[in-house]
């Protein structure tokens, strides 16, 4: 299977720290590269992570607060400078069109025609290219400004059963034909259906939920996700701040993951108020609600998307 991993570029919230850059998350999905929420310093973090502008095929912006979007001008100008040849689709809240235009043309540079704006609004999907092996769903979240979370899902498929293939006498090129066409006629005239030799295989799902209070849309985005990357700005002791600013605590993030049946929970977007010694509390508080694996993201981590079910 192609490489599917999350490269973490930044994990702080509004204020970067010595150890945590502003937000930035790069999802490698085979030949596709999706950059989420490029905050300040994204170009440098990409370089440290061994990523190039040409690796980016799509950008998804959740909202237009600076820690999630001030890296856009530099990222786009780098795409232009490096003469990236392929289209780069950029999804962002349509209600923030004025901010998109300002960031898109923040300074003078030799522009590129490969940037394809995709403003999102309401509840629905983003147009995808023929080369993209997933659908992209955007749903509104509950924050102080218009904000959207994203869900990437590959189509469901089939897992071939070798013992059934042998039983029905399907071998060699007929196996790929069966996968491709759904049925195959053998030399003896028998017609074998795909369902005779395979079982359904759910497509992989990646969910990205940033600044939000608890809401049903967050659960919907994360439903059955193989990996959920979600903000956990505060610990329980600051729940009142989370409620006031439209953010999540680690415990609330764990509750969303549990309700959605997530396989791997990745916590990020930590407030600068917390010392390194307090960071294990994020995992323990999320784990009080969610009994699956929990990862507290750190800058330049590489986290594999769990294999297909």
Automatic annotation (TrEMBL):
Presence of the UniProt keyword Secreted in the record: no
Pfam families, per the entry: Lactamase_B, Lactamase_B_2
One GO MF term attached to the UniProt entry: zinc ion binding
Signal sequence extent: none
Keyword Nucleus: no
EC numbers on record: 3.1.26.11
Record-annotated Metallo-beta-lactamase domain positions: 19-140, 199-269
Domain of life: Bacteria
Gene3D superfamilies recorded: Ribonuclease Z/Hydroxyacylglutathione hydrolase-like
Biological role: Zinc phosphodiesterase, which displays some tRNA 3'-processing endonuclease activity. Probably involved in tRNA maturation, by removing a 3'-trailer from precursor tRNA.
Subunit record text: Homodimer.
Family: Belongs to the RNase Z family.
UniProt name for this protein: Ribonuclease Z
The species this protein was found in: Nocardiopsis metallicus
């Amino acid at each position: 299977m192609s490489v599917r991993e999350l490269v973490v570029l930044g994990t702080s919230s509004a204020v970067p720290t010595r150890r945590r850059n502003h937000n930035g998350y790069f999802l490698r999905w085979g030949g596709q590269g999706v950059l989420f929420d490029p905050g300040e310093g994204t170009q440098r973090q990409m370089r440290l992570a061994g990523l190039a502008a040409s690796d980016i095929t799509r950008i998804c912006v959740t909202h237009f607060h600076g820690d999630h979007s001030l890296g856009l001008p530099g990222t786009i100008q780098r795409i232009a400078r490096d003469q990236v040849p392929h289209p780069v689709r950029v999804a962002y809240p349509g209600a923030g069109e004025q901010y998109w235009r300002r960031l898109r043309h923040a300074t003078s540079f030799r522009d590129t025609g490969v940037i394809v704006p995709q403003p999102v609004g309401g509840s629905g999907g983003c147009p995808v290219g023929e080369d993209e092996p997933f659908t992209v769903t955007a749903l509104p979240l509950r924050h102080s400004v218009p904000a959207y979370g994203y869900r990437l899902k590959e189509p469901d498929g089939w897992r071939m059963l070798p013992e059934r293939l042998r039983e029905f006498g399907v071998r060699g090129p007929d196996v790929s034909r069966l996968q491709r066409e759904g049925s195959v006629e053998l030399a003896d005239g028998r017609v074998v259906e795909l369902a005779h030799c395979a079982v359904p295989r759910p497509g992989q799902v990646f969910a990205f939920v940033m600044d939000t209070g608890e809401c049903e849309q967050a659960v919907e985005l994360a439903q059955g996700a193989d990996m959920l990357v979600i903000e956990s700005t505060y610990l329980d002791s600051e729940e009142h701040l989370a409620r006031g600013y439209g953010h999540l605590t680690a415990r609330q993030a764990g509750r969303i993951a549990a309700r959605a049946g997530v396989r791997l929970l990745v916590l990020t977007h930590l407030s600068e108020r917390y010392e390194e010694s307090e960071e294990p509390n994020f995992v323990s508080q999320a784990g009080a609600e969610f009994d699956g694996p929990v990862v507290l993201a750190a800058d330049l981590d590489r986290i594999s998307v769990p294999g297909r079910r």
